[in-house]
């Protein structure tokens, strides 16, 4: 079974540019999550999809961030325009169900550096 | 709201040393507790979990006991190996607000020398 895959693994862009991150969840997993870890700090929740619907987007920092999951398969997270404080590692995770005991499977993350 | 506090790293040990990484939490409900591990260049993997007070989670020689009285979930291993070098994240999850989104700590880097 293929795991959660994220692309790209690294991205270096200049302030003001646009970047799109992609996440392919495990096949059959309806629940997809985005997280971000700024250097040395907590992993912060960004949003949660159930199939193509946004279940919870309370963690999205501002309207420069746009997440989509058309068709309920892969998801994209676009940052436009990027700012210096957006630098960090963006993780995607998926799970079969949303329950407390349902394990989330994480991708390797995308390391985003804004110059 | 929920929060997780982990000991600051990095923790540097020699091979076969005893490991403890402290974790305490604050939660409004009755959370499940987790330890995740991130090996270099990889994503997070669930290491172990405990779903109720006094439960002990264990995996790969690591253990952690859910202590409700001290709101703690400290990670221990009796004899670490070089291959255990990684970042360890303590996390909790409960149903507050109808969601089971986990709350993570800051992570503790473990470096094990031969």
Report on this model:
Chain A is an all-beta fold and 115 residues long. Chain A is 0% helix and 49% strand. In chain A, strands 2, 4, 5, 6, 9, 10 and 11 form a 7-stranded mixed beta sheet that branches. Chain A has a 4-stranded antiparallel beta sheet with strand order 1-3-8-7, with no helix packed on it. Chain A is globular, with a radius of gyration of 13 Å. Chain B has strands at 3-6, 11-14, 19-21, 23-26, 32-38, 44-50, 56-59, 62-65, 75-77, 86-93, 103-104, 108-113. With 114 residues, chain B is an all-beta fold. Chain B is 0% helix and 49% strand. In chain B, strands 2, 5, 6, 10, 11 and 12 form a 6-stranded mixed beta sheet that branches. The mean pLDDT of chain B is 92. The chains are: A mainly beta (115), B mainly beta (114). The A-B interface holds A 3-4, 6, 33, 35, 37, 40-45, 48, 55-56, 91, 93, 98-104, 106-109 and B 4, 31-32, 36, 41-46, 49, 51, 89, 93-95, 99-107.
In short:
The complex is a heterodimer of chains A (115) and B (114). Chain A has 115 residues and is mainly beta.
Strand content of chain B: over 45%
The number of strands of chain A is: 11
Q: What characteristic shape of chain A results from the CA principal axes?
A: globular
User: How much is the average pLDDT of chain A?
Assistant: 92
Q: What is the CA-based Rg of chain B, rounded?
A: 14 Å
Overall morphology of chain B = globular
- Helix and strand content put the structural class of chain A at mainly beta
Helix content of chain B: under 10%
Q: What is the oligomeric state here?
A: heterodimer
User: Cα distance, first to last residue of chain A?
Assistant: 37 Å
Order of helices and strands of chain A: EEEEEEEEEEE
What radius of gyration of chain A results from the CA coordinates? 13 Å
How is the main sheet of chain A built? Answer: 7 strands, mixed
**DSSP E strands of chain B, number:** 12
Unreliable sequence segments of chain B: none
- Estimate percent helicity of chain A: under 10%
Secondary-structure content class of chain B: mainly beta
β-strand amount of chain A:
over 45%
- Which two chains form the greatest contact, residue counts included? A-B, 28 and 25 residues
